[in-house]
Structures are given as C-alpha cells and as structure tokens.
Records
---
Amino acid sequence: MRSRSIRPVIIDLFAGVGGMSLGAARAGFDVRQAVELDPIASASHAVNFPATRHLTWDVSAVTGKALLDAGGIRLGELDGLIGGPPCQGFSDMGKRVVQDERNSLFAHFFRLVAELRPRFFVAENVPGILAERNKKIVSKALSRVPRGYVLLEPGEISADRLGAPTTRSRVFFVGYDPERMEQVNRAALFGERRRRPVTVGEALLGLPRIRSDWQREEQGWREVKQLPEGNAFYERATNATPRGVGSPIALRRLRQFGEVSGNLGTRHSIEVVRRFDAVRPGQSDRVSGANRLAEDGFCPTLRAGTGPDRGSFQSLRPIHHKSPRVITPREAARLQGFPDWFQFHRTKHHSFRQIGNSVSPIVAEAVLSYIRSKL
C-alpha cells in the first residue's frame, strides 16, 4: 500500500506549456508525465517542470499501457488524469467546424480514462463545447467513461471569480471512482465561491516600462519592483513554487536580482501609436480591432493564434491600459495568472500561443485542490 507521504500522481494530456500542470503541482500533486505533441510547447513545459517525464506523443495513437510503462506506474495506481484537449473546433470564436479533426481528441481523453482507470479525471475546454452543435461529439466521448465512475454534470468557471485578472471562462468535465475517493460535491466544486477580484492595474503592478527596441530574448529580462506583501495574487506571482517545479535559472534571477523574462517590446508605426493613444479603456481600435485594457477592469480572453500548420498567425493582443502599445508576453502571463518565474518560449509569437492556449493556473489549482481534499 502506498505511503500517505507520497504525493498523488497525475498524468497531464495535451499539457501545452503547463497551466493545468502548475495548478496540479500547487494543489499537491506529482506531475509524473506530460504528453504534448507540439515539440516547442513540450520543451517550454520541460523548462518549468524538470522533474516531469515529457512525451511528445500523439494522444490519438498512444495506449494507456504505454503511458503507464513510461511512468513506471502500475494499473490502478494512477491518481488522476488531467488535460485540455484542443478547443479550436469547439470555440465560438473560430469557424465552429464540427468536423474539425482536432475534435476527436476529446474522445481520446476519455478512451485513456477507460484504459488507465485513474481515481479521478479532469478535462477542460471552451464554453462552446456545450453548444448544441457539439452535443453528439461530447455524448459519444463521455460514453467511454467506465461503468462505476461518477460523472459530474460539466461546470463552467470564469477565472475572475477565483482571483485571476481575466474573464476567461472554461468548462470542466470531472469524474471519479467512488470506491477510491470521497464524494465530490458539484455545488462545492463549481458553485459561487469567490475570491477578492484582481484588476488589470493591480495584476501588472511592478512590471517595467517597455521599450519598443527590446526585441531579443536577453533584452526581455528586466528588473521588476518588489510587490506588497499580504496579497494572495502577488504571493502566487512571485513565490508558491512547488517542489521540483521551476527553472533554476529563472528562480535564481528573480530571487537574487529581481529579474523576470518576457518583457519584449513591439515596434509600432507612429500612426498606430497615435491611434492606440486615442483608444479609451474598454474600447477597440477602429482599424486593428485591438481592445484597450481598463486599469480597473479585467482582461478579456487572450487568444492563442495559430501554429505553423495553419499559417502561424499572431492573435490580436490587447492594448496596454497606460501605454499606446500592445502588451508583452510577461504582462499576458500575469493577466493569465502565471507567476513571474514561469518561463515561455523566447519569441513573442510562441509565448502568446502558449499563454493563450493555457487554462489559468489559478483556476486549475482551485479545482484540483478541492479534488485533492477528496482523496
């Protein structure tokens, strides 16, 4: 029988850069494996989770046995399976293509639930997955959940409710084996629990004034001001580093020199700067459509853009609330709820893709902390 002192083990599918993984680690889980087909995202995940085994495998082709063997886990010993299957085909913002081949990956998550038999599972996706057009896909996927598991009605959580400075919403599909866990109360998991709201201005406090010529990776490492103590958001922005998580280099530079990465500028033309300067908070630029952040409001959902297989298009970034420019990767990370020591790709394009594709780690931690209490 496993010792109580050992952290419960999870596998993160479609791990991306690690929003769910960070939430799980902060909730007290051992992120044993991270499966991510995109080698760029997987490499960034590895920087932040050096103790995790990284597998650049295609989830649609992998078997549960292969995952267990790779992690040295016996059947029945896996505590949790978590992940965020690709959401582009389900999103209300996209083309809403029900036949999008990426939609089938949602079903493969639940196929692996059946093969791995974890104590619980958590899959997250965009609210659009619950639209009528996707009903058959979701129903077929959930039919793979083994008999005997309790499958909760999916619940939607807006990140601003849980203390993240963004209105980004995600839907969570949660199930568990009642023979190996205490009852999970849906109302307690998805109910109206709230934390003190964190605004854009509060979230971006202490970050440096950005110069447009800060373009190279090393130029993005800049000193940040020390944040006030006694604030839960600031504590998570600078500390709360789980065991075995974090780049040693990034942690050292933050703790010894107060430096953080990703403070990269964007070169705008004089005309664009003038237009951005005229946009009022909460309004959009008439040409680009970029929304200007409101200092006392929340950040809207940050979008990811596309990968090389779909043209490598940069998604629209919001305009800073004080300066006539788009936000930096580090500012986007703060708004999504990532800590300053968390590392993203050295380029702006891939950094924004990684941040935009991630669930807020603040939300993931809240969901998984509750589930952890039921083990």
---
Amino acid sequence: MTLACILLALEICTRLFANVFDGVIVRDRDSVIERDEIIGARYKRSLNILRYNAESDQMVPLQTNAQGFNDDEWTLDKPAGVRRVAILGDSFIAATQFPRNEILTSRLQRQLNNSDGPRYQVMNFALAGASTGQQLVLYRELASKYDPDVVILGFHTETDVWDNSDELSHIPILRCRIGDNGQLEEVRIPAAQQYRSTFLNRNSHLYNWQKNVTNRFIKQVRRSIHPVQPLKTEHHVFNIHPDPRYLRAWELTRKILEQIQVEATRDGAGLLVVSIPGSKQVYHDQFKQLMERGGEEVTLEAEFPDKRLAAICQRSGIPYLSLFPAFRASAPGRNSQILSQRLFLKGTGHLNKKGHELAATTINGWLARSKTLKILEPAEKK
C-alpha cells in the first residue's frame, strides 16, 4: 500500500508539472495513435488539438479526419473532374511536426493544382511507425475504397526495411511475412499483447518520464565506457554485404511491393514508389560517424538502400523515384552543420520545411513527366 501511494503521488506530480508552453499545458508524450483491428493502427479520429512538438520546437495543431489521418475530410465518392493521389508512408509523410498546410502532401496538392488540367486531391494515408506490410493492408482495406488514380508509397530507406522484419524490429504492430508456401501472410498482434504494450505508454506520465530518463542515463553510461558506439543493427541497412536477416527483410519487402502493385493495378491505379532519404545518407559528417562505428568489419555505402530498392522496383516493373539525388544536390557541402543546407529538423530528424518543399517539388516534376509518358496509367485507364 505504501508503494502504491508513493507511485500514485509521483504520477500526480508528473501530470501537474507537465511542460508549459505559452501558458498551455502540454502533454507531448500523450499518444495520438490508437490500435485498430483492421489496419493495425491509425491516429485518433476527428482530433482537433494543439500539441507541443519538441522536434520542431513549436505548438502544432493536429486535426485528423474521421478516418484517423492527418488530412481534411474525404468523401467516399470521388468528386467529378478530380484525380486522386493516395500517399502511404510513415512519420516522414504523416509529418505531425508542422501545421498541415506546410507538409509534403499539402505542398504537393498545391503544386499539382497550379497548372491547367484536371484538379488533384492528395490524400495523406501515412502513419508514424507504419511498415510497408501495414501500408499494404491499409491500402487494401481503406485507401482503395476511395478510388485513387495514383498511389504513392513513401519508402524511408533508413528504417522501412527494418520495420518490415519481425527478426529485426520487435515493435508490436501489424506485419506481413512470407509463409511456408512462399505467399504473403498477415501477422496480427494479439489484442492482449497490444494492450500490455500500450497501457502504460498511454496512461502513465510517470512511466514515460522514467523511461526516457533511464534511456538517457544508459546512453550516457555507454558513451563513457565506449566513446565510439558500435553500429546499431538498424544501420546495417547500409552494409553492402547484408547478413541473412537483412536479405530476408529485403525479399519480404519485394513481395510486399509487388502485392501492392498487383492490387493497385487491379483497381485501375498507378503505383509510384518514392524513396525518402535520411540525414545520414545526405550528410557526409553523419555517415562518417556510422562508418567509424562499423569499423573494418563492415563496408557501408550511403546509396546502398536506394540501389537495392531501385533494383527491386526495376525487376518488378514498378515506377520508382529516388529523392536522394535531389537532396544531395540541395546540400552540396554534405555537412549537417551548414544551417542553410539543412533539410531535416535539427539536422538529423524528420524533414524540415525546406525538405518538405523539395520532396513535393521533385515528386511533382516526376508526375508531370509521367503524364506525358503515361507511366502511371494502367491499361484500364489509358
């Protein structure tokens, strides 16, 4: 009873002394994502809240629609004369670090509608932490119902291969795997396990606070013992000689992308895979640190994930666009400390405003060329 009372008192104190920004009590770690039996997870529906985002260091309005995504409301029936672009992705596309009108999807919609021709509606189906397997299920169960003309899959090359594999990542979300018969299977986390993994994260400020403090302390201890930290498993995505787990993860990724293409084509939509680079790929000073951690045992190459993904798409006949060259060209100094060439928040996080604009402009240019070449038009719509 004494222990329970102490914990309760600490929980109350943690809630009372939450961060305050401009007189607004901020609960930055309150989860805005909820589990979903059909598509694995989604943002809480019809949110209209103001949250402090530590990465962008500002108060950000988060307004989700009735389907639980960071976008305006959608009608199930496509408006006359409108072409729909459904974008799937993770937190780089969902982009809750900025007001909605400043993120990639909104910028792309404005650019697409800044010329003569059909009107475009860009629909943001992205969710933080979503794997490609989860995006396949999301397209199948939800996005396809809105009759998109183009499906864009934003593939973050630093993390998505890792997220797809239950051998590499153990986050309890919906996944896909290759069954014994060689076919894709959905892997759904039991409800009881989901509940255990999320209850404290959602409901206890004390738990989240102590978890972050403990993690920071452990990192500091590790740095004091080993000034040069070993290469994390997720960064082996840059290893040009992948271990068997990564080979299996890449094979799984290939099958997932091929299945998305099959289903999009069946629905009369064109599929475009867009690779979104991370800061470690763009800036040499950050990638140099990875190489130092890897030592002589591994050979890392910043372009390797893009090359691997490009080869998969070419083999499968999937249109592919890498943002890597455009991002490199916009940061010729290859140094994340050059503020004028930063494309990521704090130089190493999610895309900043300049990064969102560059990504939207590059995708818009590719789509403009594809309209002439009819690259994204399946046979049913030509």
